[in-house]
Each structure stands twice: as C-alpha cells, then as structure tokens.
Design brief:
Radius of gyration: 16 Å
Distance between the termini: 33 Å
Number of strands: 3
Order of helices and strands: HEHHEEHHHH
Shape: globular
Oligomer: single chain
Strand content: 5-15%
Structural class: mainly alpha
Strand order of the largest sheet: 1-3-2
C-alpha cells in the first residue's frame, strides 16, 4: 500500500459516526507514520477537498493543527462531487474520487468496483483522450446521480 493511501486511511479512521470533525497535528501524524509533514499536506489537499465533502481549516502557532470536517450527509457529499467534476475527468482522477467515496463509506465495495470498471479507459478504445475524458465525466456524473436517487 502506498504511503498516501496509508495516510488517507489513518485520517479516515479518525472519523466516526459521532464525530464529523477531527483535529490533526501534522508533525505528530508524520512521525507516527514515518513520513515527512509535506506528505500529510499532500494527502489532505488532494483527498479531503470540498468537492469530496470536506472542509479544511488550518490553525497556526502554538503547535498549530488542522481541522477536517466531513459533510453531514451522503447526499451532500455526492452532490458536491458531481458539481466539482466539470466537463472532463481523466481515469486516474475518477478512480481517486471513487476510492474516496468508498473510504468515506458513501458507496459500498461492489459499487466502487462497478464505478472503477465504468471509468476505465479500456471502455473507450480508439477514441481521442479528450473525448474519453469528456464522456467519462458525463458518465461519472450520471452514475453518481443514480446512486443518490
């Protein structure tokens, strides 16, 4: 498992049903995982975005910390993701979003596999990459809409 996945999993494990906001001390988490603090920043900025249903607040000074707040509802998080996709999305980004949905328990394992299969470049062999990314974005949004209805 990659270090970024380990960091994301550790952060996700800090959330529970009663706690939608967690506090992270970047240096402490980095030392526990044996990585550099910038890796923690990278994971937070790439996997815990508003589009994925998170709000990040950073407090500086006096042993500063980072607060991560998870969206209150499944629907709100998925709608935020739909709104963030735009007119195109590459396979890697789509699969990263599916990974985040799964690890936030917004979709189940079987659904995650179906999303991943549908997002694969192999489904659109012979098409130019920009067309693949545009089709994938439309398809991803429609699948997400169907999932929340």
């Amino acid at each position: 498992m990659k270090m970024t996945d380990l960091i994301a999993d550790m952060i996700l494990d800090m959330f529970d049903e009663n706690n939608s906001t967690i506090q992270i001390q970047r240096n402490d988490l980095a030392s526990r995982l044996g990585c550099v603090p910038s890796q923690i920043n990278y994971v937070i900025t790439s996997r815990f975005t508003p589009e994925q249903g998170y709000r990040i607040e950073s407090r500086r000074g006096g042993g500063g910390c980072i607060y991560i707040t998870r969206a209150d509802t499944k629907r709100a998080a998925i709608v935020a993701l739909i709104n963030s996709v735009g007119s195109s999305i590459d396979e890697r980004s789509a699969k990263a979003n599916v990974y985040n949905l799964r690890h936030q328990n917004l979709i189940d394992e079987k659904s995650a596999r179906l999303f991943d299969a549908a997002m694969a470049d192999a489904n659109m062999r012979g098409l130019p990459q920009d067309l693949k990314d545009a089709i994938r974005a439309k398809q991803f949004k429609q699948m997400l809409l169907a999932y929340i209805d």
